[in-house]
Design brief:
The protein has about 220 residues and is an alpha/beta fold. It has 6 helices and 12 strands. The strands form 3 sheets. Strands 1, 4, 5, 6, 7, 8, 9 and 10 form an 8-stranded mixed β-sheet that branches. Strand 5 and strand 6 form a beta hairpin. The longest helix is centred in the N-terminal third of the chain and has 20 residues. The radius of gyration is 18 Å and the shape is globular.
């Protein structure tokens, strides 16, 4: 299993990370969504370097050109609702990919802990395909593993899974590395933070990505 942390390189990605973290910039939900989309686009480009390619002959007005094009069958999967802007960034680049959507949420208990419930899945076949499981926040890793297992139960086993998150906690990365298939998983994150609060929010993190993108929920 390979872990890629993109913020370790000084690129324009760090500008967008800074803006989604900045509580002053966060007040503009449209800008927050667009920055999530931009990060998704950059992440898609980086992941595309790991795909297999095959030559395609393209006819131009003046002749023919051979172009190396993606040979993988790609499925983009995200968790509602926070993942939608980030997912769109990937879809901007992999515009012919199939798509899968999962509704998962935290159900709090009286002692302050929570369980994760997977309520709804919409996906086609995953068997033998390349799954990109994109979720902005990798906090405890529990939602990620449950979502992956639920997708496989419904759609079959992908040949390879790329987990792509914007902000991860060290605990979430460790959990994913222990609970995802080791030989067929790659983990991509923009940045890794050290701490989790008692309610499993990443510190310093960004706050609640779904609320920042779409407004606070009851």
């Amino acid at each position: 299993m390979t872990l890629h942390i993109l913020s370790r390189q000084n690129t324009v990605l760090n500008k967008f990370i800074a803006q989604i973290r900045d509580k002053a910039v966060q007040r503009d939900s449209m800008r927050f969504r667009r920055n999530m989309e931009r990060i998704g686009e950059i992440m898609a480009y980086e992941i595309s370097k790991e795909f297999t390619y095959r030559p395609q002959i393209v006819t131009t007005p003046l002749g023919e050109a051979s172009v190396e094009t993606i040979g993988n069958e790609i499925v983009l999967a995200t968790i509602l609702r926070a993942g939608l802007p980030y997912h769109q960034g990937f879809l901007n680049y992999f515009d012919d990919a199939q798509n899968a959507f999962v509704s998962a949420y935290r159900k709090s208990t009286k002692n302050g802990k929570f369980t994760v419930k997977v309520e709804y899945i919409s996906c086609g076949s995953l068997e033998g395909k390349t799954l990109l499981l994109v979720d902005p926040m990798l906090a405890t890793g529990t939602s990620l593993a449950l979502t992956y297992n639920a997708l496989c139960e419904k759609g079959g086993t992908p040949a390879h899974t790329h987990v792509a998150s914007v902000i991860a906690s060290e605990q979430g990365v460790d959990y994913a590395m222990k609970h995802m298939p080791r030989e067929t998983t790659s983990i991509w994150v923009a940045a890794v933070d050290e701490e989790l609060t008692s309610r499993s929010y990443i510190v310093p993190g960004i706050g609640d990505a779904g609320d920042l993108a779409y407004g606070e929920k009851l």
